[in-house]
Design brief:
Length: 289
């Protein structure tokens, strides 16, 4: 057996054992948040995020260059359902009815927060269910507490167009024929099997099949690799996910009632909170001109 002589360090000379790195001691340090130890050469992601009550003054940090954000103007709305109407050409258009009426309850600026955004509020919330600090913030802008509060990243020019307490008019943001992106939460269907969740075909109904009519089939091999690979489609929780549908068209606007009719379907059941913004994959925010 080839034995390496004692040497001051690895990688010295042309000997065969010179290519073998000498073992190095790993220094450890104590994690302040727990009792776990880990190598100082490999840092563990910090868990600095803490759960706080939603506030119209919360700071979320500056935007990173790797993350592309839709900065087109938009609104918050509530899905009322679906309907249809006839165009002047006699065509029937199936569309989703969205009730807008959101109010500007806060602003974000680059000088103070590191990014520009509008904080929109929708719906009413009882003051007894609102903390005193948050109720005081609404009182400063002469608004009642809102049930839903969302941030929309915008350019500094768009943020400057709105004042605190101003209601966002649908005809100020959108126009008929404009392409928009809709984001909502899908219906929750609970724990479902592979046939409903992933549209599997299931097993055959004959040829000796027993109790495996709706099963998913094989999920791996015996010896190689001898395990179930991650990412396989299996039964599990289905629905209740935030989904975005892109490039939907505005069919009609009713500004006096804060109603927006969007062609096609939008994820979610009735009374789901919907976010409508100009299409990020279209030029000029999806507008005609």
């Amino acid at each position: 057996m080839l034995r390496a002589p004692e040497s001051p360090g690895p990688g010295i000379g042309n000997e065969p054992w010179a290519l073998v790195a000498a073992p190095q001691l790993l220094t450890t340090r104590h994690d302040e948040e727990g009792s776990r130890f880990f190598s100082s050469g490999r840092r563990r992601p910090s868990d600095d995020a803490t759960a706080v009550e939603p506030s119209i003054d919360n700071h979320r940090g500056a935007e990173t260059e790797r993350h592309i954000v839709n900065k087109h103007p938009g609104i918050l709305g509530k899905k009322l359902g679906m309907t249809q109407f006839f165009t002047e050409k006699g065509e029937v258009i199936r569309c989703t009815v969205v009730q807008a009426g959101c109010v500007v309850v806060g602003k974000r600026t680059t000088e103070k927060d590191g990014y520009d955004a509008l904080v929109l509020g929708l719906g009413e919330r009882k003051e007894k269910h609102t903390s005193k600090p948050l109720a005081g913030q609404y009182k400063k802008i002469n608004q009642t507490p809102k049930r839903v509060v969302r941030e929309l990243r915008l350019s500094a020019e768009e943020v400057a167009k709105y004042e605190l307490g101003e209601k966002v008019a649908v005809d100020k943001v959108f126009e008929v024929g404009q392409f928009v992106d809709a984001k909502g939460k899908t219906r929750g269907r609970g724990f479902t099997g592979v046939m409903r969740r992933w549209s599997f075909a299931g097993g055959v109904d004959s040829h000796g099949t027993h109790e495996y009519f709706r099963h998913g089939g094989s999920i791996g091999t015996n010896m190689t690799p001898g395990r179930t690979l991650p990412g396989l489609k299996m039964p599990g929780h289905y629905g209740d996910e935030t989904v975005s549908i892109m490039n939907l068209k505005i069919a009609k606007l009713i500004p006096e009632d804060d109603i927006v009719l969007v062609e096609g379907g939008i994820p979610g059941a009735k009374n789901t909170i919907i976010t409508l913004r100009g299409a990020v994959k279209k030029k000029n925010a999806g507008k005609k001109a």
